[in-house]
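Might I ask for a little of your time on a matter of protein folding? Here, with my thanks, is the record as I have it:
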Amino acid sequence: MIIFKHALQRNISQPINLLLILILPIALIFIPPIGDGYPNGLYLYGMLSLFTGFLLCKPIVEERINKIILRISASPIDYINYLFSHLLAYALILAVQDIIFIIGFALYWNDIAINYALVFSLHFAFNIMAVAFCFFWNSLFKSYNLAFGIFSGVGSVLCLISGISMPLRVIPETIQNITIFLPTYWLPYGLDSLYEGNIKIVIISLFVLSLYSIIFLLIGSIRRY
């Protein structure tokens, strides 16, 4: 619990994190639909979640780079407990961010029938995947700044071709056949399926996002320094 509180305080004390958590979600509320489908803000939230997750992971990544985790491993604190406490703090912050976004969205788009429980479930599953993916991504680099520099480009491209920043229906089918294997694909695909009333696909999307989360966490946690 002490590690959880520490991780929570470190992140919410950063002004840029507060901007991403409290301000930018509100800006997404007013983005209208592009053709048929939900307002585009529901999709673009995935991009915000991805980059928020990356910034939230900064403390734990810096502790790995500075080899603080080696000292933690030699202490009474269990590494799994240390890692889980941090990830739980990040998940809570992203959940609060999503709740703020959905409440504002529901108030502004009150004339649209949306199953907000399933939207929150998709967003939350994507949030967990985003944190896990960012944790995994940072494990590939020895410098946080280098990891972020490359991630900025890669993350933007992933959002573009996966249907987050551009509707899936305008993406060529040949590209969709590839992007179906990307974790970022399953948020817009799940939202499109929810709009069409295909709850079965929504459940599959939730399962796939959860599976990606487990895979990224397992791989990312192998490297401790």
Notes: The mean pLDDT is 86. Residues 79-108 form the longest helix (30 residues). Residues 28 and 42 are 8 Å apart (CA to CA). The radius of gyration is 18 Å.
